[in-house]
Amino acid sequence: MTVKAIQWLLLSHLLVQVSMVCAKVPAIIVFGDSTVDAGNNNQISTVLKSNFQPYGHNFYGGLPTGRFSNGRLPTDFLSEGFMIKPTIPAYLDPAYKISDFATGVCFASAGTGYDNATSDVLSVIPLWKELEYYKEYQKKLRSYLGNDKANEVLGEALYLISVGTNDFLENYFVFSRRRSQFSIEEYQNFLLGIAGNFIRELYQLGARKVVLSGLPPMGCVPLERTTNVLSGGACNEKYNHVARSFNEKLQGLVEKLKKELVKFQLVFSDPYDIVSEIIRNPTFFGFENVARACCGTGMFEMSYMCNKISPFTCSDPNKYVFWDAFHPTEKTNAIVADHVFKTDLAQFL
């Protein structure tokens, strides 16, 4: 058999697998924070926005959509991987209608967390409100598709939840209120209870395929390196330890809920290891800079501080792991999404 014939055989096999995926996942529904916000913050009164250049520099048409990246998010790549559509629109974006949301919709809000106090910090959409928007969406979808078809889509859709980092970096470690109430372990358990109740409510609303994402090595984002002066700009390992221990608790929650809720496919997706591998071995993945971000000086800029008039913004984001001081570049997002698709989402094939 020729090399070309072998390649065609492998491609044919892959296409069959992909077609099977498409048949089982008609839509992707997203909840969370800036890791997956496709532009909902554009429509609310908050300083945490990214609907201006150079955000979106590598997005279609160079359009700044409100995604906190130079391009697409992991959820966009996952949607494309399932051959649904290349991007998932924000629910509050007036440019889209229910016909657009029928195959995927994003309710996420940058800056939010499990804890309502976290969303209060920058006046963003709390997680409970994201769920209220989802209930509103269900009604619109049933009006658009009819009850039977809508219920089929809602039951077969893949629900992605990516939230939690802000609870620590924006809330617990910055303000004293929660630290005076909870030890770090108690606070993790507090967040865990909210996460469990959120998933249970999704289940009661008809969700049957849910992916719960853990935390990345949050002590390695450029801002935390910048402020970690006593360690010479190294990753803040205290914060990374908190991320790892919280992920272990989330994994335990997933195992508990899988026993509690019948006919429920619940998956824990842990981005910690793949992001850590990128940070430890950037050259293997084609990166040149991991400690600093592309935008501005790369040390602390985010949102309005990451703007088109900055003379320091890099010319090639593909050489950088991070786009701004908190968020990955499109290239990093693509690598993480590919890893998640091939591992954590394999059971949905």
TrEMBL record:
The keyword Signal applies. It holds the Pfam family Lipase_GDSL. Keywords: Signal. Residues 1-23 form the signal peptide. GO terms for molecular function: hydrolase activity, acting on ester bonds. The keyword Signal applies. SUPFAM superfamilies: SGNH hydrolase. Belongs to the 'GDSL' lipolytic enzyme family. PANTHER family: GDSL ESTERASE/LIPASE EXL3, OS06G0636700 PROTEIN. This is GDSL esterase/lipase.
